[in-house]
Amino acid sequence: MAVLERSELQASSLADLHAIADQLGIDGFRRLRKADLIETILGGGAPGEDGPGEPTEQSQGSSEDSEKAESERPEGGRAKRRPRRGSSAARSRRSAASSSDDGDAEQEEPAARPARGSRVKEAPAESNGAAAGGPGELATGVVELLGNGSAFLRVSPPEASDEDVYISAAQVRRCELVSGDRVSGPVRAPRRSERYPSLVRIDTINGASADAVSDGVRYEDLPVDYPSERLALGSQDPTLEAIEWLTPLGRGSRAVIVGAAHAGKTETLRRLLDALTGQEDLELTVVLSGARPEEIALWQESPVPPVAALSFAASADAQAQAVERAVESAKRVAARGGHAVVMIDSLDGLNAHAARKALAAARNLRDGGSLTVIATATGPLGGETAVIALDGTLTSTGRQPILDLLASSTLRPELLVGEDGARAITQARATAMEAAG
Questions:
Q1: Lesser CB count within 10 Å: N end or C end of the chain?
Q2: Burial, 236: exposed, middle or buried (Cβ in 10 Å; 0-12, 13-18, 19+)?
Q3: How far is CA 347 from CA 144, 324, 327, in A?
Q4: Domain 224-436 is in which class?
């Protein structure tokens, strides 16, 4: 069985490592530094519990057994690129994946499984039919995604329990699951090297057939419109007031907050998050990529803690993966008619292609949901529907608002604030230009 690799753990945020340690039942994990926590996870248990590296059935397998298992995997163990949704090839793969055998094979995913050498406890015997202890029993619950791409089926949401069911990253990707989805399907009991039951296949998603949900049109192929519903901020903050009426944001906006170093980009993004928190129909997600450690601590105390928090010491690839996971989850929310907002601080640490790809995911789906991306960056990337430029001089002298109106812009503002509002924006820009000239 594949397990978490050291490189994957090192690329994970401390919050993700805490989640894994909690699921493994490691005592006192919050007191450990990241490096020690990784060693403890790989060693399998809290320090002094059984000693790291104690062999299990998993770690005692011979190389001959490994080679045999590898030779039995289809296509030589290499995963095929997923075909376009809705194609006959995709449906064939999903149909094959629905079998019990394939469901077991998917449990070999390395996500959130007990590490090598870990000693795990068996899940309790099933008493109410919600979680599974034996093969073929049905489980129903609510999905909670983990930062590494796998998930758990919470049978008593939102609380975690030993009766929860593990969902592999492959199943999450195939069925495009998002946190909050209610799914059902048969499960198998945990094996000796596992702590939780595992989902064999997914039968229903939010009451509909999993096949019917998965056979929908690809997100990228859905028709789109310019943002036409303004995001109401309702804040007394002078800069947010200026953004709301002079550089308005809408559901589906691709917005970048730009400015020189120390211009206030991160603080402005945090205030935007505070203004949007509590709007019931918005699903907010925060991703920190390339952030300062002090900023990470502040974000983690916010009403919406980041799903991933990587400092500027993380590699560009690790940062890109964290951003991509968050954006992919938000795309599934929008494709099902919801409204998602992803805030990224910042795009500067990503390579150019990954940054553009994250920004390009934002769109207002016609007759559907929306995905709004609001990110910070040193400068515009191109393709934005809104650019919020900040004036570093105003920031450094404590003057408000710190919006650089002449460098800021919104495409088709009349769709968000009406014709009169659009004329008022034009007039405000003309006045600012006269004052600057």
A1: C
A2: exposed
A3: 26, 12, 13
A4: alpha beta
Q: How far apart are CA 104 and CA 197, in angstroms?
A: 11
Domain extents for the chain? 6-67+84-214, 224-436
Q: What radius of gyration do the chain's Cα atoms show?
A: 24
pLDDT in tens, 119-162: 333 333 333 334 334 446 899 998 988 878 889 999 988 788 88
Whole-number pLDDT of residue 136: 65
* For residue 65, pLDDT beyond 70: no
3-state secondary structure of 368: coil
Report the pLDDT value the prediction gives residue 352, as an integer from 0 to 100: 93
CB 389 within 8 A of CB 258: yes
> What digits encode the pLDDT tens for the residues 290-299?
999 999 999 9
- Which of 186, 167, 230 is closest to 23 using CA atoms? 167
Q: How far apart are CA 126 and CA 113, in angstroms?
A: 21
Residues 6+ apart with CB under 8 A from 343: 269, 272, 273, 284, 285, 286, 287, 373, 374, 375
| DSSP assignment of 223-254 | -EE---SB-------HHHHHHHHHS--BTT-E
Q: ∠76-201-63 over CA atoms, to 5°?
A: 35
The whole-angstrom distance between residue 284's C-alpha and the CA centroid of its chain comes to: 10
pLDDT number for residue 114:
38
pLDDT digits (tens, 9 = 90+) for 293-323: 999 999 998 889 998 999 999 999 999 989 9
- The dihedrals phi and psi of 241, each to the nearest 5 degrees, come to -60, -40
Tell me the CATH number of domain 6-67+84-214, given options 1.20.1050.10, 2.50.20.10, 2.40.50.140, 3.60.15.10.
2.40.50.140
Alpha carbon distances (Å) from 63 to 116, 191, 218, 400: 15, 21, 41, 66
SS3 category, 202: coil
Distance between CA atoms of 289 and 277, rounded to whole angstroms? Answer: 21
Residue showing tokens 């129909």? 281
- What 3-state class would DSSP assign to 327? helix
Rounded to whole angstroms, how far apart are CA atoms 378 and 185? 47
